[in-house]
Amino acid sequence: MILYRIGFLLDSLIIQAWQAETIRKLLSTGKVEISVFVVNDSPRPSGGNSPVLYRIYRKLDRILFKNSLDAFKQVPLSQIIPETVPILSVNPIQKKYRDNFSEDDLKRIDTFNSDILIRFGFRILSGEILNLPKLGVWSFHHGDPSIYRGGPPAFWEVMCQIPATGCVLMRINEQLDQGEMLYQTHTQTDPLSVQRNANRIFWMSASFPARVIQSLNSLGSNNWKRKDISSTSNFSSSIRKPPKTRSMLGLGLNLFSRNLKRKLLERIKTPHWEIGWTSNLSFKNQVLLTTEVQLIQPKKGSRSFLADPFPILEEDKVWVFAEQFDKRKKKGHIVVVDEEGNFTPVIEEDYHLSYPFIWKEDGGYWMIPESADSGKLFLYQARDFPFSWKKYGLIFEEEAYDPTLWKTEEGYWLFVNQKSHPGCSPFDELYLYYTESIFTPKWISHPKNPIVSDVRCSRPAGSLFQKDGKLFRPAQDSEKRYGHRIRVMEVKQLTLSSYHEEESYRIEPDENQGNLGLHTMNALGDRWIVDFYTRK
């Protein structure tokens, strides 16, 4: 087994929690060993002190929105590494924004024979250090470098209302935030707090190096370079810095006023989902108009709503299984709706249930509703379809958001959203598992997991379907808001060793008519049943 020797470039022997998590995840792969910690004996900030008003805002933001799972908590390095790992102190050659290394320091670092150096400290690196490790120096940019370079991380997305916050891991060159892209993701931007926004994206990034190592190990270095590394990026985006006082004042006032307006609106008009039928999906980019949907209205009024519809045709009767959410209890359960619009509760637990994925097999009906609040996934069997169901058993002992099955001759594929860390969002990453039997499952995690890491196209939005000999996966796009729209992805490869999909088309809600989201679609013959998000 190949072991990759990884060194770390640090400014201190005290690191942040997300960095500690990065090291833990790397070690957990069983494919790396830590070669050296190179510590900067004279760390300097890039540039001078940030403007006063910016520093005041960030301090208040950290106090008001500090997370119990704080990605920036200080962690002594001694708590997470063996005492036998060597520590090498260096004094870099420092210029205005850059750090370089003397020939003597380069020789000392080279004696540890590192395959990779991961940059947790120092400033913009220059010179031979970038070519010293066989697989380069890896560095994070917590932001989308195609939108902006520099920093502060996760700040401009909140202030400028950029709907998604990106993050990349790259093999860097001497240019600021430039290099070969190794891994990239996007998460929904927090509309209110830079601290919360940064906390989530930094926790997400902790998994990146371990995932790249897994890919490198499975493909081999030559194939990995050809398949998994994007070509060197030369981003022309603007370089950002902390805003000056006048600019910060305007940004802060704008942030306060728009979020005050948003919070007032949320108190006056609460989220509300509706389901309905349409025959007007055209399998290309389109806005689905409200007038094209025949809504199914709950008879219990505005105290509950319906979402996540899954239709079934049984003995010439149409039944729709859906989540019914009780706004007072803040909890959902599963109901079935008949053709006359009558609602009957069929599955209710102490925890929230939604997304009633249902299918027929061997003459009977089975269901795996989302039960992520319980941290587990259960299989239900219809005793007397459609009204009577019993819990068949536990089939997946992890959280599973919007579980979606696809059955082939070989067995069952389970698509679920999961969080790589408790501080992450459940909207961002799609995982794939395989088993030969759903009734006595022995799940195999796909080697590409997560197969999608992007809030814009990860979370399932209904059953996979085939058309014209092609396989499609509906995916939620929650970039702008939760369940904003659906991206239909064409599945190009689905095997035990590979997965690849590409966007085919998008379905948008009719925002001109007050519909703010659209996040589930399922077919019954030539009709589709969908759900819409509004505020009422």
Question: How would you explain this protein's 3D organization?
Answer:
This protein starts with a strand and ends with a strand. Helices cover 17% and strands 40% of the residues. The relative contact order is 0.10. It contains eight helices and 37 strands. The chain is α+β, with helices and mostly antiparallel strands and 536 residues long. An eight-stranded mixed β-sheet has the order 5-3-1-8-10-12-13-14. The protein has a five-stranded mixed β-sheet with strand order 17-35-34-33-32, with no helix packed on it. Strands 27, 28, 29, 30 and 31 form a five-stranded antiparallel β-sheet that branches. α2 runs parallel beside α8 (245-268) and α6 packs across α7. β20 (317-326) and β21 (331-337) form a beta hairpin.
Features:
536 residues, alpha+beta, 8 helices, five-stranded mixed beta sheet, eight-stranded mixed beta sheet, 37 strands, 17% helix
Concise description?
This protein is of the alpha+beta class. It has eight helices and 37 strands.
Helix content range = 10-25%
In quaternary terms, these chains amount to single chain
The secondary-structure class comes to: alpha+beta
Give the spatial strand order of the biggest sheet: 5-3-1-8-10-12-13-14
* Radius of gyration of CA atoms, rounded to a whole number: 25 Å
Q: Helical segment tally?
A: 8
**Which descriptor suits the 3D outline?**
globular
For the sheet with most strands, the description reads: 8 strands, mixed
Strand tally: 37
Strand content: 35-45%
Q: Span from first to last CA?
A: 59 Å
Report the mean per-residue pLDDT as an integer.
92
- Ranges where pLDDT stays below 50 over 5 or more residues in a row are none
